[in-house]
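Annotated sample (chain length 417).
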Amino acid sequence: MAACGFDFGTSNTTLGVSNQGLPTLVPLEDDEVTIPSAVFFSPRSEVRIGRAAVEAYVDGLPGRLMRGLKSVLGSSLVNEQTQVGRLRLPFREVIARYIGAVKRRAEAQTGRELVSVVHGRPVHFVDGDPEGDRSAEDTLRDIAHSVGFRDVSFQFEPIAAAFDYERQIASEEIALIADIGGGTSDFSIVRLGPERHRRDDRSGDILANGGVRVGGTDFDRDFSLGTVMPLLGYRSAMKRPGLDVPSNYFHELATWSSINRLYNRRVRREVQEVRREAAQPQLLDRLLHVIETERGHSLAMQIEDAKISLSDKPHAAIRLAWTEPELDVRVERQELAAHTQELTRRIARQIGQCVRQAGLPAERIDALFLTGGSTQIPHVRAAVIAAAPRAQVVEGDTFGSVGKGLTLEAARRHATL
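Output written by the structure step:
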């Protein structure tokens, strides 16, 4: 029997166990220690997860792909049912099937039954809603119990990342931990050091904690709405003066967790009716093609790939010939910054609140530890660094720091296992 640290992320998941006192992330898909938080259901409700799920969808196999599942925690969506193969399942059951599959893979890899888990959680699952926040944690706890974990506890994701970073330092320091992932941005200001690392109670070392429900999937959504969705009819005019095409279809298509909501006859009929009254019906033809072929996730993947490409290139191409021959979009890094400017401001404001909560000037922060895939977005990174101008910038394991820290915490909490 063993304890593990489980980082169930909006985009990717890791699971770690202690190996001779060191946190070790378990290979969950071939030799990869990260696995995409994705589930694919075949028409017979057979389940594939991770890269295999994405590949099944990209290869055009019949079935339904679901990504961004963590983002439904704390919302009414978690109890809504969705059609998966021959079944209608609530989203919490879909999440349970994914987490259960990851647990079984890790047990097969390690040869140990995993009975205890320290789950990572954002500082806030839901902004400004304590009840929703509690509900999200309770839901995740219930899911963990349902798949066979007996002892379930939680740690804030930025605190877990801090524990991973602490192993690298030789003297005491104050660190700002910035964990900007797929669904949330979380920040902690923590006193760290070799001697503090040995203490069981670290509550006094946590100077501030804060978070905001902004992450990589939000950047995908706003980038999509600004660059691609207008080509499908977003904000285009209706024949009747003063009216635009209804925007809800485009917002759902641009949001990972709600794409599948468009795949039903009612929505197709509605869009066909809108097309008849649209001033540019050819744009709605493209939208209908995406919906009728159930290729919304293909579109989202292309937008995500372009966003990632713009992290180190000035421009990228989004090729949409599968919707209409020769339809391509060239996007610039400045466009990504412009369309996601408000999201970046929200992140910067949250860091500022965290520094004020800590009761110290920003100049007192010694290190800025960056983890999470969205810290690689240039204008987001610049905003975070500006909040601690004198701090040494330290690159964490982009997708592994939180999981390793959770594993350290699991080993501490369950030392007798």
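Annotation: DSSP finds 13 helices and 18 strands in the chain.
Annotation: The chain has a mean pLDDT of 94.
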